[in-house]
Amino acid sequence: MRRIEIYDTTLRDGSQGEGVSFSSFDKILITRRLDELGVDYVEGGYPASNDKDCEYFQKAKDLDLEHCRVAAFGMTRRKGIAAAEDAGLNSLLQAGTPVVTIVGKASAFQAEEIIKTTREENLAMIAETVAFLRQAGRDVLFDAEHFFDGYRYDAEYALQAVRTAAEAGAKMVILCDTNGGSLPEQVAEITRKVVDSLPVPVGIHCHNDSDLAVANSLAAVDAGASQVQGTINGFGERCGNADLISVVANLALKKGYQVLREGSLRQLTAVSRFVYETVNMPYRNNQPFVGRSAFAHKGGMHVSGIARNTGSYEHIPPESVGNERRILVSELSGRSNIMAATARYNLQHDAKTMERILAKVVSKEHAGYQYEAAQGSFDLLVRQCLGTFRPHFERVAYRVNIETESDGRIITEATVKIRVGSEIRHEVAEGDGPVNALDAAMRKALNGTFSSLAKMQLVDYKVRVINSEAGTAAGVRVMIESRDDTDSWGTVGVSENIVEASWIALADSYEYKLCKDEERESQRKVADYVADSVTV
Description:
Blueprint: E1 5-8, H1 24-37, E2 41-45, H2 51-60, E3 69-75, H3 87-95, E4 99-105, H4 108-114, H5 119-135, E5 139-145, H6 147-153, H7 155-168, E6 172-177, H8 184-197, E7 202-206, H9 213-222, E8 227-230, H10 244-254, H11 268-278, E9 296-297, H12 300-308, E10 326-327, H13 335-341, H14 351-366, H15 375-386, E11 394-404, E12 410-420, E13 423-431, H16 434-446, E14 457-465, E15 476-483, E16 488-495, H17 498-535
Parallel strand pairs: 1-2, 1-8, 2-3, 3-4, 4-5, 5-6, 6-7, 7-8, 9-10
Antiparallel strand pairs: 11-12, 12-13, 14-15, 15-16
């Protein structure tokens, strides 16, 4: 199958999404990551709009990119002004990129009613802008804004607009579903007609207002388009742009087109999460292909099927896009879930223990617990049901005190009293809040005995009310995510008291870390013993 170019506009169109903002440094980091992925074009921004984008283009000149080409984005010259005198076009030249993408009106309605010019002047703006940039040595891509709406309004004028750009020297014409209202069959039909009538390649740029941006992009490619524009994770104005993650995965894995560089599909999950982290936004768990829930199985029948053949409930192997399979445990679980989630304990022939674990999960979830994202707490529950759990410490008492100073400063102090072996340890610490203070006090009490805790850190904390009808007396569920230098894990606590729920989740996190380290050390000693025996 033919190769399809991937044009990424996360740094420009994606930044127009609500809550999305990139520093110039962020943009450089993402550009490098997209180059590693094998994206063909990275649209860095709109240099005429702000100083940050100008700074990015200056820094981008020094990037040693192996695959992608950086593009600057701009508009056709303003009406009534010569191209050489247009400040926006001159800023594109100053950006120094080898590629320039120009957006122009391909709709007679937009030309006459929105920018208040004549049809003829709009065509002149397109032609003179493209010619000016071509004469300056730039490769020009022409984004035909509102093309599909414009085609339905006046097909001949829309076609005349893209022909004008091609004849003026545009390397490619990109058809834009700017309002995101077109259907796949409409996009396919119109794209096919344009491909047949233009002397240059055609691309597609879709917005997601009808939740069809990916479907429309795929339809356009099947109709002859050779480039897809979009954003990582579908970031963008209103409902976003076509999600390049899904576009790339579908093109390569479902339709057999050549995209990106060979072997790079396995980077999709990592790149998706890298962009989320860079923009400081939470992952979308149900995001196709790369979300944490994309290959998560919860229903007992599903897990049973997966155990027999992964193709029973998975459309592709998760590792093909760098993701992983997850088996969730909840009150909906059957023995298949418990068996899969406890595989390392070899309990498949221990029906009584399986039933005991399942009954415990159902009971705890009835009380408000959830184990889907709390693998650490679930592991401790399994150990307790097996009778192998030996707590490393025991809570005797704790106290948290919060005071406000006259200057408005808030002081939080936690006191913990815990038993380690036969010794009672009593420590006090301050923190930014009750959980931070409890964590600090516990570390002071435990680090002398368990030095590996120094490598553990809390990275996320979530609170959810579980019976809101009780008002301020409602129970809460606290989820804590922790991490060390090799793993990350979640723990959960439930109580009517938010501090107590936090303590339970926090204590589980410590216990899981210590159990995990002991198990790893035991495995290392066994491996060393076997190695020594073989040597002898």
